[in-house]
Write a structure and sequence with these properties.
Blueprint lengths: L1 H15 L3 H52 L12
Length: about 80
Amino acid sequence: MGPEKTRANRRRADAAGFTLLELLVVVVIIGLLAGFVAPRYFSQVGKSEVNVAKAQIDALEKALDQYRLDIGRYPSAELGLKR
């Protein structure tokens, strides 16, 4: 029984790991998925930054209009508004 037991243990040890080819296939699949997902994700980040900038410009316009309604004129450069 001794030699048969060691053969069974060797088979289990051989079957327990992954081959280099299997690991390379997994790395290639992950690379392909990242290649498809990353550009879409980063384009959405750019669009959201543009939307935030537009919202901030709109808020500034409304604040300036409210200032004009309250004071009667727009703020001057001396008050911190530069052209």
